[in-house]
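Thread: quick sanity check before group meeting

JM: Hey all, I'm pulling together slides for Thursday and realized we never actually wrote out the predicted structure for the chain we discussed last week. Dropping the sequence here so it's in one place. If anyone has concerns about the input, flag it before I start.
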Amino acid sequence: MKILVANLGSTSFKYRLLDMADESQLARGEIERIGSPASRCFVEIGNVQKEHELQVPDHAEAVRQCLARLTDPEFGCLDDTSEVSAIALKAVHGGRVTGVQRVTSEVLRAMEQMIPVAPAHNPAYIGAMRQLSEQLPEIPLVAAFETDFHQTVPDRNCYFAVPYEWAEGGLIRRFGFHGASHRYIATRTAELLGRDDLRIISCHLGGSSSLCAIRDGRSVATSMGFSAQSGLPQNNRVGDFDPFALPLVMEQTGKSLPEVLDVLASQSGLLGLSGVSGDLRDIDQAARAGNPRARLALDVFAASTRHYLGAYLVELGGADVIVFTGGIGENRPEFRAAVCEDLDELGIVLDPDANAAARGTRGEAKISADASRIQIWVVPTNEELIVARQAAQLLEG
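JM (edit): ok, ran it. Output follows.
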């Protein structure tokens, strides 16, 4: 069984083709600037890479171009598109609809209902799913929702202190996201340590960030809540925020509620604090040059990460391993050091040399000192593999 895993942006299409017989990657690629006069198309099959430009008006055409490269007689790895068992997509928010689903009109309606909650994600996925369903009906579409991994979170960690009827309506609760990444960390860490009874704190830190407390391979708490705008500060999304500040912000800025929410969802987070960028690399460079707002953004991000780390040490009654993953977690040793600073009394001690040497491009690495009671690891995530596994399981019944 071969699964094409798609990662959709509003103007981009990234993909991996996986052979589930041995979970090997047959190909990967991306198409950028969809809808512009000249779209950039990249594909890698084996050790051969090709890049070119052509006009790609929409996501359906992007998939056609992808399949054309994969079935190219001289370059491709497929004899025919019928070898693709499904296109699997990492969907974000379906509200009451979660888990792994065949894409149907009911699934799309559930995602549409949550557009106000996931304005940066759901519209692009809904539009692309509709196009693919209509124009490529011969290939099944599978949506693996980010909320799925967190269905095991106990009620005490997913209820807000709002009128009980709101939660019982099925929507006002802590959903949690980054499920594919946290599921991969749970699975892979168990393999690395040879145990399935671990207490893991998974730190997915990147443009979008969240922490997850995992016991025996199951999520028991996570930092993101009702929306992906909550929890830690994101690159341009606010993170945790007191809703009673909204009337005052509206009065002071003259903005309407939708306008204020748009600012919180697109102009806040690390970007809003630093005034420099939402990219931690740019912020770190500015902080080193003496920019106080950039330094503030780094400090707030680290403090928020430490806040949830401490909460999950209490939730789990300690931890066996802390795992850093995601673009920042895998590649920024100085930020990992800031998160773990002065936590020796809690049994968290970094090995400075191992930490400095560990970056995602170098693979998995243990970065804790011998004296550390809690192991600390860097493990590059593989969300595509998790989504492909989930799609294969669904198709196999």
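AS: nice. The chain has a mean pLDDT of 94. The longest helix spans residues 292-316.
JM: adding both to the slides.
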